[in-house]
Design goal:
There is one protein chain. This protein is an alpha/beta fold. It folds into 2 domains: 233 residues, Alpha-Beta Complex (Spore Coat Polysaccharide Biosynthesis Protein SpsA, Chain A), CATH 3.90.550; 71 residues. It is built from 11 helices and 9 strands. A 9-stranded mixed sheet has the order 7-5-6-4-1-2-3-8-9, with helices on both faces. It is elongated and about 90 Å long. 31% of the residues are buried. The N terminus and C terminus are likely disordered. Bound molecules: uridine-5'-diphosphate (UDP) and magnesium ion. The site of magnesium ion has 5 residues, from loops.
Length: 347
């Protein structure tokens, strides 16, 4: 018995909208014209009813104005403006909540995910896949270090987490309506999307593609934020680090007992008086370090619990623009509560 299927509304929120393309955007004014051009070319050729869900993640450049101008011109655009920068995961969640299509494609604004692959993704979806993952065959334009660290991170994450996260896949993917509903039932605040995508399961198809360099603008990720993301990914989907800390503690304690026995025996049998200020200092600092590290790790999980218990929304919408077609039909947030929005009839 699958409770999820029962919750799944029979009627699609978007009526006849077949495809939604969700694009989170943060300071992307340099790429918007090229992106809009390429995506609409592909979608027009596809010959399906579609919408473009452009999410402005609190950009500080011309992005909101450009989105607004596009939405005023093109009735296929649903524009969602967040109240501030919530991060890509928040922007994506907002986009998914506003998308109404029977299939939803998620992609980056910088054209690193080629929109020309959308027809192929739709084919897999029509064949019955609920999730179509795009796996990067190559990552041109990214440094050797970034490629290697990403590779090892995925291996590590899969080794220790409860769900299988396909390596080298990003957020670029197609989700069926069913998959979107499934995702919306995971209402944790800490949204490590790649993990959530994997967690829902459902029939998944994988398409390989060549990831291209950014068309314009700069990446929003420096190494520190990537490390942070990796750490978030691990601690969101696994308690293995806690077990490592525990195992480390057990091993240290065991070695400590052996060491003590050795010292006692040495003193009693060999009459060797206990000496060694340096070794004492070494032990204290090592043990102190291990303890602080473990406490920090536990703290990380406690902190996560703290954030989760607040039950704050993942994002706040400042404004939504969409043509009359589907207004008001799909305002569910990830936690299912209604959301305050104002609708502007576009064109
Ligand atoms: N993005 C966002 N909010 C953020 C950071 C990024 O919506 O706080 C969007 C960004 O506009 C882009 C996508 O997420 O469409 C991927 O960002 P980026 O290209 O900087 O990441 P990379 O491709 O380098 O991993
Ligand atoms: Mg990018």
């Amino acid at each position: 018995m699958n409770a999820l299927v029962e919750k799944w509304p029979r009627k699609l929120p978007g009526g006849s909208t077949e495809l939604s393309v969700v694009i989170p955007m943060y300071n992307e004014h340099e790429v918007i014209p090229a992106m809009y051009e390429r995506i609409t070319t592909v979608l027009a050729r596809l010959n399906v009813s579609y919408e473009l869900v452009l999410v402005d993640d609190g950009s500080r450049d011309g992005t909101p104005n450009m989105i607004k101008a596009l939405a005023e011109r093109d009735t296929a655009i649903t524009a969602v403006f967040l109240s501030r920068n919530f991060g890509k995961e928040g922007a994506l969640t907002a986009g998914l909540a506003h998308a109404v299509g029977a299939a939803v494609v998620i992609m980056d604004a910088d054209l690193q995910d080629p929109p020309e692959l959308i027809p192929q993704m739709m084919q897999e979806w029509k064949k019955g896949a609920d999730v179509v993952c795009m796996r990067r065959r190559s990552r041109r334009g990214e440094s050797w270090f970034k490629r290697r660290s990403a590779h090892h991170f995925y291996r590590l994450l899969n080794a220790i987490s409860d769900v299988e996260i396909p390596p080298d896949t990003g957020d670029f993917r197609l989700l069926s309506r069913k998959a979107v509903y499934a995702l919306q039932q995971l209402n944790e605040r800490n949204r490590y999307m790649k993990g959530l995508f994997a967690w829902i399961g459902l029939p998944t198809a994988i398409i390989e593609y060549d990831r291209l360099p950014r068309v314009a603008g700069v990446t929003k990720w420096d190494y520190l934020s990537l490390f942070n993301l990796a750490f978030q990914g691990i601690t969101s989907f696994s308690v293995a680090p806690l077990r490592v800390a525990m195992a480390g503690g057990a091993i240290t304690a065991f070695l400590g007992v052996l060491f003590t026995l050795w010292i006692v025996v040495k003193a009693l049998v060999l009459g060797d008086p206990v000496q060694g200020y340096p070794s004492l200092i070494a032990m204290i600092t090592i043990l102190g370090g291990v303890q602080l590290l473990s406490i920090g790790l536990v703290g990380e999980y406690v902190g996560k619990t703290y954030y989760e218990t607040k039950q704050r929304p993942v994002y706040i919408v400042r404004d939504v623009m969409r043509s009359g077609r589907a207004a008001g039909e799909n305002t569910g947030r990830s936690d299912g509560k209604a959301e305050q929005e104002s609708y502007h009839a576009a064109a």
